[in-house]
Amino acid sequence: MTTVQPNQKSRLNNPEPWQDPKIKPYVSIKNLTKTFGEKVAVNDVSLSIYKGELFSLLGHSGCGKTTLLRMLAGFESPTSGKIFIDGVDMTDTPAYKRPVSMVFQSYALFPHMSVEQNIAFGLIQEGMNKSEIQDRVNSYLKLVQMSGYEKRRPHQLSGGERQRVALARSLVKQPKLVLLDEPLAALDKKLRERTQLELVNIQEKVGVTFVMVSHDQEEAMTMSTRIGVMNEGRIFQVGEPTEVYEYPNSRYVANFIGSVNLFEGLIIEEKSDHVIVKSTMLEKNLYVNHSASVPVGAQICVAIRPEKVMLSLDEPKGEYNWTSGIVQDIAYLGDVSIYYVKLTSGAVVLATVANLVRAAERPIQWDDQVYLHWKSESGIVLAV
Question: Of 213, 232, 255, which marks where a domain is finished?
Fold first, then answer.
């Protein structure tokens, strides 16, 4: 499915690498496919990742993201396709010969080794001299803020501390590419949020390219330079977090990234700067700003994020982009409340409202009749 998307301003001043056609990708995946018997885990994926990126593969369980990561690491062999890292074909190169390190979801630390022994393990295997090993281990302990923990064993560390040791062990060999498989999944919410920022800061300091697998949308949005949304072995969309969230290219991406209201309808008017959509779900027609051509009569749906839906007790003025309903439920989340409004058509629309006043002082409560309205630029037209 494709999106009918408005023109976006490109960052002409200081463009990112993926916006500059002169810059070659650091990691290039070409028509990569992996099958297990009749099951197609990764289906003809092509992807370009640039030096210094923190790129996230995002998708639900079983979408193929971990299989793709394991092929980058060399733990799985592709059925077909090619993998290039820094211009070198790594498709058939065994894992131990690749300039790649991996941080596993379980961290995979050696329980019988101390922190410094865990970090030094790969350097010892390479035959590096002891003084250089010690200097490098100390340097990376400082980088991940674990100085003073050298003699502790993994069982004496918290989840966040084990995660940092695993990261230091991956970085100490100074790889060209670091792969992270759900690296923060085992941490509680507050620690996970703090560790996200720590990981980003470390990645920026060392300048190594990171590729991370995650099913957590907020985590990917917070940490990533770009996101690749996967489903059924394919990548549906690649873009910066704001692009993927604000301009999803399909119903799947719109539904998977955050919450969304989808209104199905028909194009009844198409102009150079807007379309008008008639939907049986709403009382009023939708007026959507955009600059792409959509034929009159096309069946589409309009996606509108809940935070872009405004609530009021008074009927809005204007011919388009509003409807009415009854407040069916209110989900209080502390900083915001999510209003579930049931329309006369039976559809339920979500509206996210900042809690600027206390709950008892809110003007809109359960069972109130309310009006929902939104701006013409808030909608995105998606092909059905």
Answer: 255
CA–CA distance, 297 with 274 (Å, rounded to integer): 15
Model-level pTM? 0.89
C-alpha–C-alpha distance, residues 205 and 166, integer Å:
17
Interior CA angle at 15 toward 11 and 20, to 5°?
Answer: 120
Same domain, 232 and 300: no
From the list 176, 110, 169, 120, the residue with the least C-alpha distance to 144 is: 169
| Cα–Cα nearest to 374, from 320, 330, 298, 325 | 320
Token output for 194: 């703090």
Q: How many domains does the chain have?
A: 2
Q: Which residues contact 380 (CB under 8 A, 6 or more apart)?
A: 3, 4, 5, 246, 247, 248, 254, 288, 302, 303, 304
- The C-alpha atoms of residue 220 and residue 295 are separated, in whole angstroms, by 35
Taking only the tens place, the pLDDT of each residue in 259-297 is: 999 999 999 999 988 999 999 999 999 999 976 678 999
Q: Residue 336: how many CA atoms within 13 Å on its side-chain side?
A: 9
Q: Per-residue pLDDT tens for 138-193?
A: 999 999 989 999 999 999 998 888 988 999 999 999 999 999 998 887 778 887 88
Count of residues in the chain: 384
Domain-located, residue 147? no
For residues 13 and 82, membership in a common domain is answered with yes
Other CB atoms within 10 Å distance of the CB of residue 12: 7
Distance between CA atoms of residues 43 and 233, nearest Å? 5
Choosing from 233, 255, 277, the residue where a domain stops is: 255
Question: In angstroms, rounded to a whole number, what is the distance separating the alpha carbons of residues 200 and 344?
Answer: 47
- The answer to whether position 106 is within a domain reads no
Q: Which of 350, 173, 191, 345 is nearest to 255 (CA)?
A: 350
Structure tokens at 364: 């809109």
Give residue 280's domain range: 260-383
Residue with tokens 């600059």: 291
Question: CATH number for the domain including 269?
Answer: 2.40.50.100
